[in-house]
Amino acid sequence: MAALTNDQILDAIASMSVLEVSELVKAMEEKFGVTAAVAVAAGPAAAGGAAAGGEEQTEFTVTLESFDAAKKIPVIKAVREITGLGLGEAKALVEGAPKALKEGVSKADADEMIKKIEEAGGKASKK
C-alpha cells in the first residue's frame, strides 16, 4: 500500500464538510491520545502577545459563544449565511457552541458577523 502524500491528505480534508472534519479531529484525538484544543488555545495567546508589542491585530476569529434557545432557528440561518454551510452542518455548529465560525477575517467583517448573530438571538465574540 502506497503512503499518501501531505498534499493528497490536505486535498482530501479540503473536500470534507465542516462536520466531517470535526469528526475526523475527534477520531484523531482518540487514536493518538491528544487534544486539538491545546494548539487552538496557543494561537490567540500568541496573537495577543504580538498585539501588545505595538502591532495592531488585523485578523480575527469570530466565535459563536451561545444563543437563546427560543431563537435557535434564526441563529442557524445567520450561521448558514456567514459560513455558507448546509443546514445540518450549521445546526451542528450552533448546537456545539461555543464554536469558531470564521477565522482570519478583518475587524469590519468580524463586527458585521457579530451583529448578524446578535440580531438573530445569539452571542458572538471576536479574538
Automatic annotation (TrEMBL):
Highest classification ranks of the organism: Bacteria, Pseudomonadati, Spirochaetota, Spirochaetia, Spirochaetales
PANTHER family, alphabetized: 39S RIBOSOMAL PROTEIN L12, LARGE RIBOSOMAL SUBUNIT PROTEIN BL12M
Organism listed in the record: Treponema bryantii
Keywords associated with the record: Ribonucleoprotein, Ribosomal protein
Protein name per Swiss-Prot or TrEMBL: Large ribosomal subunit protein bL12
Residue stretches making up the Large ribosomal subunit protein bL12 oligomerization domain: 5-51
TM region positions: none
CC annotations in GO: cytosolic large ribosomal subunit
Gene Ontology annotations of biological process type: translation
Assembly information from the UniProt record: Homodimer. Part of the ribosomal stalk of the 50S ribosomal subunit. Forms a multimeric L10(L12)X complex, where L10 forms an elongated spine to which 2 to 4 L12 dimers bind in a sequential fashion. Binds GTP-bound translation factors.
Occurrences of domain Large ribosomal subunit protein bL12 C-terminal (ranges): 60-124
